[in-house]
Amino acid sequence: MLFLFVILEGEIALIIAGVFVHLGILSMPVTIMLIMVGAVLKMVAGYRLGRYLGKKFPDSKLLKYFERRVLYFLPRFREKPFWSIILSKFIYGINNATIIFAGYAKADFRMYMKAELLSSMVWLGVMFSLGFFFSAKALEISHNFRNFSLLVVGFVVGFMVLQRGINFVIELAEEWTLKGKSDTKK
Prior knowledge:
Layout: H1 2-8, H2 10-23, H3 28-56, H4 61-73, H5 81-88, H6 95-104, H7 109-141, H8 145-185
Helix pairs in contact: 1-2, 1-3, 2-3, 2-7, 3-6, 3-7, 4-6, 5-7, 7-8
């Protein structure tokens, strides 16, 4: 289950895995192995899916959507794909589109894997540690299971809201910047 959850919704899966490891529900070595295998599978499958879709359906609306979304947040993807792929890991909701877009855009696979592996090591460690250490703090606050569960759920929801808020601010800043550029051209 954790394996699939990492593939579909990595941030939340890693935070929850950190909580479960801290509580002793999951084994640290097994959890880390499952997380790493899931992450690598996601990287390879997403890239290959993008390549396949690019060959079979090069003008599909889905691929054009991914392209717009990726280039909106990472406008220099084509010039600097390595750094764009790394950055995509830390922009909530953009990494999955970037993984598929990298295959569609025919980014060099070795470069792609290096960027994904490097960013994933940092990302996996940070997200897992957040869950692990938050669990410790939540237990300090309350040993009552109900209160502990509410604290964990509150943390996860708060984390998601924070991530969405950051993306919203980035989008507003981008729109403001583009508006400013179009006003100076007039």
